[in-house]
Amino acid sequence: MNKNNIRTFALWARRKLIYDIKNQLEILGIFKDSILKEYNHKIPKSYRDELAKEVMKRGFEEVVEEAAYVWFIRIIAFRYMEINHFITDTSKCFFDSEESFNISHIEFISEISMELNLNNDEKLNLKKNFSNDLENLYKTILILRCRKFANILPDIFYNKNRYMELLIPDKIFDEESILKRLITDIDEKDFKRGVEIIGWLYQYYMSDKKDDVFNGLKENIKITKENIPAATQLFTPKWIVQYMVENSLVRVVKGYGINRINISELKEECSYYLDDYKEESEILGDTKSIRHRTEVGNIENIKIIDPCMGSGHILVYAFDFLYEIYKKAGYEGKKIPRLILENNLYGLDIDYRAVQLGTFALFMKCREYNDDFFTEVEYEYVNINMCTIEESNDISKEEVNYFVNAYIESKNYSDEVKNEKFRKDIEYLVEIFKDAKEYGSILDVKNLNFVTLKESINTMKNKIIPSFQLSKHILFEKILKLINQGEILSGKYDAVITNPPYMGIRGLNDKLSSYLCENYPVSKYDMFSVYMEVCQRLAKENSFYSMITPHSWMFLSSFTALREKLIKEGNFINMIHLGARAFEENVGTIVQNVAFIFRNGNVSSYKTKIIDLTKEENSREKEKKLISIKKDKTSSNVYIGDLKILMETQTKSIAYWISDNVIKLFSELPPLSSITKPRQGIATSDNKRFLKNWFEVERDKIKFDALSKEDAMISEKKWFPYNKGGDYRKWYGNNEYVINWEKDGKEVKEYASKLYKSYSRTIKNEDFFFRKCLTYTFISEDMGVRYCPNGFIFDVAGSSVFFEDNEKINVILGFLCSKVAKMFLDTMNPTYNIQVGDLKNIPIKEEMYTCIDIKEKIDNLVRENIEISKREWDSFEISWDFHSHPLAKRGMKLSEAFKIWEEKMKIDFNKIKRNEEMLNKIFIELYGLQDELSESMNDEDITFRKADVKREVKSLISYIIGCIFGRYDAEAVNNYRIKSGEVEEQGTKSKWFAKNNIIPITEDEYFEDDIVYIFVEFIKEFYGEENLEENLEFIASSLKKKEGETSRQVIRRYFIKEFYKDHVKTYEKKPIYWMFDSGKNDGFKALIYMHRYEPDMISKIRENYLKLLIKKYEEEAERLSLMINSEVINKKHRSFAKKKTYRIYNQIEELKKYNNIAAYVDGKKIIINLDDGIRHNYEKFQGINMVDSKGQEVKMNLLCKI
């Protein structure tokens, strides 16, 4: 299955459908901000009025989103059924061209009419349309087919809103229509490989929205109930689904003792089934099964549920498994699909779209096994057990009373006890399902007599509904849905199998997080862990549940109570520890997973089988490894043991790989907290407001080296260094942020007090501010600990370790950067979430700081590593201690400067690697771990950047631009030029200096301060004229010079196409050099240094560059026109002149529009405040609304979009 093509199509299709449907709405006179009363369009007025009313009620965007999805899934469904021959040729929806559609439907007109049950008038209307309007004919037939399939799959094809037919995709036969692209973009073979393609399409379709939700989380926007489906959509790899289904259902089938089922043969047929460590009879000491055996032998009584069913992937494979069991038990093939749907499979989800797709997938399975299934469903509908969780919020007390009274009236006799019971049951359901979309299937519903309730509903329907108004019909349907979902939620199941949502409590809205705290105190920290309790509750006693979850619950101290509860109340039969990259989609290395089978009943001394697949690089490799382990019974990847014993160790984690020696070290040695004070940092509650990268604000407002709170106050500075974690890095670095801590954090504290009543909830450990410490990243692939000098405040993501005795700081840094500390930390918590509690518990050998010889060795190695790492960090301009670029060697050839730098970096890299290996050796010997750890280090584990010619040249260019702007002084010791007077002085000395703070970038050298010209002038002056051409050639070759290009052309191309992208990336989308950009034709670009911005800057750009450039382009166009018309010029040059003329005319048009928007913004004389940060100031020049020369409102950017 080509998932890249599927992803590309789904993303494109969503955007295309949304765009097209918005256009269709506008044609109907329905706009985002207004709805026209009069419109000129030949459609039923009632349909259009219904649509307009819906837009007013729900909002323009929501209606567009719904319509886009409805038609996307309908088209996908028809394509799947067509390719798999589940519908007849007359129902074909996809054609290569208008002509093939025309021929097909002329040929099958009679059959189409019969199939769609058309009356004579409708038949005549179809025939009439063949001659003049194929587009509308196609739409008509497609709509009629949707109506026909509404009898089979109402969830997908039934129009509960008639207006949906108005929004059918337009221009069906265009090359860029969704139907045409579906034919060309996705191979038919992918649709033939199975119904799981529907799930993949839906996941990709939702990925834009998912990105929006997670981007919102970064801005502290909590996940609402409407966005939970998008945030949690993740398709489970098929082999993991098979593992969960096979390992659950083989045991269920065995427990049921179904006749004619050979369990040994069944196990052999299952690719991913893992045997118990011992058979149950051996564990229990007798021949009785511990499984619950009521109704032995009846396969129709097996109940399986997925409480987070998504698009039904797990249920689809469970269907296949059960089908084979039914066949082995002797059932007739065609009858099996209905039996499975009506008796065995149950599913719940808060996302109605997912339930639609899950139902569709299961119906396709039924059709796969029974050719007559669709026909049978039309005559007798299947009672499926799949529910979208519905809310009761819009059912009033008056409606409940009406409903109960209707129940009383429908009975032939009066029974006050039963009447009251009925009332209480209905009131209970209405109450418990309030805000149910927030909670989904975590709701704990008590077991009412749902059979009686449904029978009562049917009686009421038959006797009373015929006389009801439409609103009463709707009320009955709403309450019936509550009864159905209540029955499923209160049920008990033989197997519960799911991939739950992964959402930490911090990202949840207040309502949901409060509910978790109240109802799931031991598992409240994440939705996946809550579902571990939910699945246990849904499972019958001694039956099974199976899940794939993040593996954090196995290790984090916050989940200790959950681990203890689960191990006390049941047994983990087996687990496959997947680690990172278990999913086929790239979800990064932060999410690490485990899949397991759990028995809801405890057997003492039970030994769990755990298979370690964490070392395999991707999902496919993990699958291969599991299969090979099944064959190799002696694999070292298999652990068998009693989890209760692991929980008795000091770590209380399921660190199944740890040796007796390590357990002994944990129990006998003092913890790190005995000599240090690990502390969690503060949360500002609004990072966007209070935190800035250091380069955003004025440097002289920053106090880099405050020794204490008092020192900070005396300085009267506003900004102070702030540890915020950052990338994985050891020894030194990641010093990038500053915090507004003016007047002892007055603004931050006032804001926190306003939010939480007391600022101490988020502002913690103030006594440790500005102290020398060790710091590390809270979420990281590895334990990267760094030395942090005085002057810093620290964040929750940049937690820190403090010392009463700073003499120990180097020793402990060396230890925490060693393999030994990593092993201890991985034992307690191998997740990427490094907890303060875990750090505190690392066992410490006192000899490392009490033995003078050992301490001196460690001190010297660590001190050297800090120095080397600091030098490397400070060699990049992102450091506030950056003094000079490593290639900025006056009078030297750049090739020689790079060789010197390359050799220096190589020496330092090898030195830091050797030192780390020596430290490993010291600590391995100290702890007696020679048999468990090796001192050697891989190059990729050394957090030190080797020299790279392309990177160094690009950073040199950036440095030179900084010199041209006056940000740097290549001759100064500290490199920074801060005072305006110094800037003016430089402007009188060097012709390359940007005195007006503007550097134009154009395709030719139109200005004397053209960027390439002044760049070359700097190279000539700084490195010497005699080295100029060689140095320019070195730069050009490093930037991937193309054949035929001169070095200056390469440099110009880099400035036009790549420089700003690199700058924005280096400065993490907070560029200090701003690029004015006229648009895609590259008509005009110019850089300014935002720290030198003045309100008249745009005026200077317009007067000194834009107007002149328009004139120069017009002159150039005139010159080229003469060339084109000249008989003297050869054909090749005339052709070139034509192309260039066309481009220049586009550039002139672009510049005129840009000049208008520049004039408009110039009139505002925008003032920027550096303390507001780059993004806030940058946005003042973006998305400018104005009316153009044609009287149309346009939105334009003055600066390059980032």
Automatic annotation (TrEMBL):
Pfam families reported in the protein's UniProt record: Eco57I
Enzyme Commission numbers on file: 2.1.1.72
Highest taxon above the source species: Bacteria
Keyword line: Methyltransferase, S-adenosyl-L-methionine, Transferase
InterPro entries with a match to the protein in the record: BREX_1_PglX, DNA_methylase_N6_adenine_CS, MethylTrfase_TaqI-like_dom, N4_N6_ade-DNA_methylase, SAM-dependent_MTases_sf
Gene Ontology biological-process annotations: DNA modification; methylation
Catalytic reaction equation(s): a 2'-deoxyadenosine in DNA + S-adenosyl-L-methionine = an N(6)-methyl-2'-deoxyadenosine in DNA + S-adenosyl-L-homocysteine + H(+)
Bilayer-spanning residue ranges: none
Protein's name in the database: site-specific DNA-methyltransferase (adenine-specific)
Organism: Clostridium cadaveris
